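Supplementary Methods S3. Complex input for the benzoyl coenzyme A-bound model.
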Amino acid sequence: MSAKEIDFQQIFDEKIENEVRIEPKDWMPDAYRKTLIRQISQHAHSEIVGMLPEANWITRAPSLNRKKILLAKVQDEAGHGLYLYCAAETLGVSRIQTLNDLHSGKAKYSSIFNYPTLTWADIGIIGWLVDGAAILNQVPLCRASYGPYARAMVRVCKEESFHQRQGYESLVVLSKGSPEQKEMLQDAMNRWWWPTLMMFGPKDEESSNSDMSMKWRIKRFSNDELRQRFVDISIPQAEYLGLTIPDPDLKWNEETGHYEFGEIDWEEFWAVVKGNGKCNKQRVDARRNAHEEGAWVRDAATAYHEKRSKRENEQKQHKNA
Ligand code: BYC
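Predicted complex, serialized as C-alpha cells:
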C-alpha cells in the first residue's frame, strides 16, 4: 500500500468506527466494494426472482381484494429490486453485467425462492414467514455502513412490514375456515418452515463472509442470532394460528429464554444454493425469457432518448447561432 492509500485506509477505518456512512465517491478498500457488490446484487436478484412464486397466484387469488393486495405486494418487490440494482451501480458495476450474471446462473439469490407455491396458503405463508424473516434481516441493514444500501433498506423495510401483516391476516382467515382450509394451512407450514430458517444463511462457523462484514458494519448480527430471533418471534404467532411446528425437537428453554430447535438440513440448503433446488432452473429461465421479451422496450426507450437528445442539441445550436 502506498502512503496515500494508508491515509485513505485510516480515514475509512475511522468512519466505520464512528458510524459515519461511506458514500459512493469515498475511497474504500477493494474487498469492501467487492463484498457490497456481491451482497447488494444478490439481494436485488432475490427481490426480482422473489416476484415469481407469488405472481404465480395473482390470477388465482380467491377474491378481487386479495388480488389487489397481491398485485401491490409483487409490484413493491420489483421496486425493491430496482433500488438495489441502483445501489449496486453506485459501486461501479453495470446493470447489464449484474443481470447477465443472474441469467447465466452464476449469481446467487435467496434459496427460498427455489421452492414451488402449490396452494393459496403458500402465499399467506410467504408474507408471514418469508417477509417476516426478511424484515429481521433487513432492519439491521438500515444501519449498514454503506449509505446507498442503508437508505434503500429504510423504504424496503416499511413495505416489508405491510407484506408481513397482509400475509398473517390472510392466514388468520384460513385458520378460522373449513377443515380443508386448516389442512391446507398446516401443509404450507410444513413445507415452508425449514426453508425459511435457511434464508438466514449457513451457521455462523460456516459463514465465510460474516467476520469481515461485521467488522465493516455491513452486518450487525450473525446468521444464527437472527435465525434464533426469528424462531422466538414466530412460535407464538404460529400457536395463535393453531399450527404445529414441523420440528419434533422444538422446546422452550426456561433458563435461556429462547426456543431450542432441531438441526437444519444443510445438505438441502447447499443443494438449493448450488442450483439444484426444485425450481432453480424454472426461475432463471423465467427471468431470462422476461429479459429477452423486454428487449423491444429497452430499444424503444434508447431510441426515444437518442432522438430527444439530438433534438435538444439541435435547438441549442440553433439558439447559439
Ligand atoms: N440463499 O458467508 P455467508 C425478500 C450464500 S428478498 C442463497 O453467511 P453473507 C422477498 C452467501 O451468499 C430478501 N445463498 O454470507 C422478495 C455466500 O455465498 P458467496 C433477501 C445464500 O453474505 C420477494 C455463502 O452462502 N434478503 O425478502 O455474510 C418476495 C456463505 O454465506 C443464502 C437478502 O438478500 C441463502 N439463503 O450472509 C418476498 C438480505 N445464505 O456470496 C420476499 C441481504 C447465504 O460468498 N443479504 N448464502 O458466494 C444478507 O443479509 C446476507 O447476504 C445473508 C448471507 C445473511 C443472506
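The first strand starts at residue 251 and ends at 253. The beta strands are 251-253, 258-260.
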